[in-house]
What we know:
Blueprint: H1 14-35, H2 40-67, H3 73-97, H4 101-134
Helix pairs in contact: 1-2, 1-4, 2-3, 3-4
Amino acid sequence: xxxxxxxxxxxxxxxxxxxxxxxxxxxxxxxxxxxxxxxxxxxxxxxxxxxxxxxxxxxxxxxxxxxxxxxxxxxxxxxxxxxxxxxxxxxxxxxxxxxxxxxxxxxxxxxxxxxxxxxxxxxxxxxxxxxxxxx
Length: 135
């Protein structure tokens, strides 16, 4: 389940789009490691890096929302917390059980479904707002 960048995923803001492209690339590396049967020792640093990158990206989006008084900020922040909680739970499961099929499947599905839904809907709305404010 890789994420291929296309215009439907563009939010219309270069910085956010570039960060999403990098995020999807990191996600794909993690999923490739999971699919090829890599162990916890190889998956753990990739998952940690993904989490660290997501935190930086979320902070960037949150700065835009705060600075521009984005009206849907609280819901957007709630979704960010939800994703971080899900990935943190999957990370704990990786530590507890190792890189089992169920764990890597959980990581894959959790991250894929959330990222696609969030970017296509929530981030696209944010991008429109940011671009509209700049006009």
